[in-house]
Amino acid sequence: MYLLYNILLLLLALPVLAGHLLHGLLRGRRRQGVRERFGCFAHERLAPLSGKKTVWVHAVSVGETQAAAPLIKALKSRYPDWAVVLTNVTETGHRVAKGISEVDLCLYFPYDFSWTVRRVFAQLKPALVVVVETEIWPNFMRVAHRSGVPSVLVNGRISDRSFPRYRRLSFFIKPVLRQFSIFCMQSDVDAQRIEAMGAPADRIEVTRNLKFDMQTGGLNEQNSAPIRRKYGIPACSKVLVAGSTHIGEEEQVLDVYRRLLKSQPDLCLILVPRHPDRCRLVGELLSSRDVLYSLRSEIEGIPITMAPGAVLLVDTVGELLQFYTVADLIFVGGSLVPVGGHNILEAALLKKPVLFGPHMHNFKEISHLLVQAGGGLVISEGEEFYREANNLLSDSQRCQDMGAKGYALLQDNRGATKRTLQAIERIMEAG
Predict the structure, then answer these.
(1) Domains in the chain, ordered, with CATH?
(2) Catalytically annotated residue among 36, 64, 249, 250
(3) 64 tagged catalytic
(4) Per-block mean pLDDT, blocks of 10 residues, the chain (431 long)
(5) What global pTM score does this model have?
(6) Rounded CA gap, 134 and 40, in Å?
(7) Alpha-carbon distances of 212 from 67, 183, 382, 416, rounded to whole Å
(8) What is the spatial distance between Cα 313 and Cα 50, in angstroms, rounded to a whole number?
């Protein structure tokens, strides 16, 4: 199995590397982290790990990194003398990781070539590996297992879309899953699915979703006035925030925004594409529709006033919560197009009403719970999006009630971090 897998990786190596380099050229800058992905680190980069036990946390992108943050803080509190290494696959995830103060070293996750993974393990010498959600890399797991390093899958999730594929490949995945020490899954369904894929039943626990344990980082309603001043948003203006949008959604958001301005003339829009490198194309879309906009990266420290009807286009990462803080209404993207949705609990965390589309298969349980609790609404494109947004922006009390219900749901479901940490402690105590 591993022989076939490694042959396939070798065949893919050249196009993968070429793709990374081409992506960098198209974006006008050198692709970051290529050397790190091959396990090549400058000696001084590893200085924070010197003389310490190390826990290696892997979170593929932004969502997983944010979900891992409460657990990383808890690990650092429980094991203060340990160093935490956090690896990511994406550049946006890597940038968010750098903002977590408890992390001692942020690196890019190595390509899953056996020699690359062995080189990284030899340099990091981890005492524990923590994999967030469902990142199953055969050589990575094999090297961890052969090195005697316990490996924990946390916040485990098997989506409706991926489960049939995993089942078809169970002959290949089962040996990999047996190398994990424990599986901390989000729900009973996720637990049943990973067992069906070949995970040993006695290593599976339902610890619930770490996303319910997110923290605001000190952001709350009292911060909204300074944030409004920072971005020139008038105190009297209402704010619609469209967060984590994808191709095909910005057009719909703009159509709804322009219609809303007829009944909500003091409305401002903050548009936050999921991938900041798309902001140039989104800016061109705004210009083609004669919409005035400012780029977040270009207004730092510059006094501006955001006129109603204008757009603040956010081309940075890790700042979504501060924009949600000033929102009267939030739309979360990746949901009107078949992406699978994004984290709607961030809106609930700040007591804001939230709208999202029907494509929420990556957040199926969370979206169901939030709608059931009355903290969010599922909308379709076009008329329904406009109608629900207009109704909410016209009724501040209803917005407050929805925000309060979403926040109450969040509080009722906290505790995943504590349960996950307890599972990790048992593994560490068992050696």
Answers:
(1) 48-208+415-429 (3.40.50.11720), 221-412 (3.40.50.2000)
(2) 64
(3) yes
(4) 83 74 59 81 92 97 94 96 96 93 96 94 97 93 97 95 91 94 97 97 97 91 90 94 98 97 97 95 97 92 85 95 97 97 96 98 94 98 96 98 98 97 93 67
(5) 0.91
(6) 25
(7) 9, 18, 31, 7
(8) 42
